[in-house]
Structures are given as structure tokens and as C-alpha cells.
Design goal:
Blueprint lengths: L2 E6 L6 H10 L3 E4 H7 L6 H10 L12 H8 L3 H24 L5 E5 L14 E6 L2 H12 L3 H10 L3 H7 L2 E4 L5 H20 L1
Parallel strand pairs: 1-3, 1-4, 2-3, 4-5
Helix pairs in contact: 6-7
């Protein structure tokens, strides 16, 4: 069985950068966001189900899912959001498990933004949290996505709190500072630790 390290953190915490550092060390990375896009790709049964439920307006001209339109339909509508989650979450979970099982490195990194919120910590032997202050999240995300501050605050409010994530953590990388050398050193240290645990 593959040894799985779950990597999570709030929006703008720097999960992708840290996952890339692990990948550079030869660690297989399974990214829930990529899988979430794959399960609604053109030709996938889930896309047909979404179009049948919400109408053809949620399909863009290029036959891909119009995520912005779908977000508009489910935002503030709990029953529609529940319907969508009931369709997609089992499919995403199944593919994540298969991808982790197929990993060829001693352990694999499962990157899930909502690891804590969706109770996916049970899939992992360890949970690694990228921790940043809410102020940093706001600054980085505003700069990265050129998004509206109110929208980012709404996303943050819908995610687990910093305290909830830290309570679920076995390991924590503090990513509040700009020092990437420090982050790389932390990744190298954790990599050695995870290799020992996975081979033990």
C-alpha cells in the first residue's frame, strides 16, 4: 500500500510551490484540483449529468464546463451545491485513491485544498499543513488572481479555519515569510522523514 502524505492549506498559502519542491525530489504528486478538472472534461459522464441538471448554459462553446456560470448557479444555493458535491466528490475520491495506488515513489503527496473540510484526512498516513496568516492569504491571492477582496474573504470563510487545519496537522510548514530557501530546507527535512516512515 502506498504511503500517503496529505498536503493542505488555505487559499493563497503556497501549496503548489511546496508540492513542486517535493516533485523535484522525485515524489509522485496527486493533485485534487487537476483530478476535479479531469472528471468534468468533455466526454466524461459527469459533464453530461451537470448539463442535464443545470442546462446547456453551463457548457461553453468549446464543449468544456463553464466554471464561472456553474459557480454562479450554485453560489448561495445549498441544495444545488449539495447535488453537485454528491456527484463529483465520490468520482474525485476514487480517482485520487487510484492515482496514489499507482504512484511509483516510496510515498506520494496528495494535494487537497479541502482535505480537512471533506474529511479526507482518513486517506492519509500523515497530514502536512502549509500555514500562513489570513492577512498573507488575502494579500497573496489578491495579487495572484487579481480578485475582489470580498470574494476572497468569502472563499476563506467557506474553508476550514487556520486553527482547524493546524489541529489536523502532523507536520506544519510556516510559509509566512518570503524566504524560499527556508521552505526548500523544510521540504528536504520532511522528505527524509517521510522516506523513513514509508520504508519503515
Amino acid at each position: 500500500m502506498t504511503y500517503i502524505v496529505g498536503l493542505t492549506g488555505g487559499i493563497g498559502s503556497g501549496k503548489s510551490t511546496i508540492a513542486d519542491f517535493f516533485a523535484e525530489l522525485g515524489v509522485a504528486v496527486v493533485d485534487a484540483d487537476i483530478i476535479a478538472r479531469e472528471v468534468v472534461a468533455p466526454g466524461e459522464p459527469a459533464l453530461a449529468a451537470i448539463a442535464a441538471h443545470f442546462g446547456s448554459e453551463v457548457i461553453a462553446e468549446n464543449s468544456h464546463l463553464d466554471r464561472r456560470e456553474l459557480r454562479r448557479r450554485v453560489f448561495g444555493n445549498p441544495s444545488e451545491k449539495d447535488w453537485l458535491n454528491a456527484l463529483l466528490h465520490p468520482l474525485i475520491r476514487e480517482r485520487m485513491i487510484s492515482a496514489c495506488a499507482a504512484a511509483r515513489s516510496p510515498y506520494c503527496l496528495l494535494v487537497v485544498p479541502l482535505l480537512v473540510e471533506n474529511n479526507l484526512t482518513t486517506l492519509c498516513q500523515r497530514v502536512l499543513v502549509v500555514d500562513v496568516s489570513p492577512e498573507q492569504q488575502l494579500t497573496r491571492t489578491t495579487r495572484r488572481d487579481r480578485a475582489d477582496e470580498a470574494q476572497i474573504r468569502a472563499i476563506m470563510a467557506a474553508q476550514a479555519s487556520r486553527e482547524q487545519r493546524l489541529a489536523a496537522a502532523d507536520d506544519v510548514i510556516d510559509n509566512n515569510g518570503p524566504d524560499l530557501d527556508h521552505i526548500k530546507a523544510e521540504v528536504n527535512r520532511l522528505h527524509r522523514q517521510y522516506l523513513g516512515l514509508s520504508l519503515g
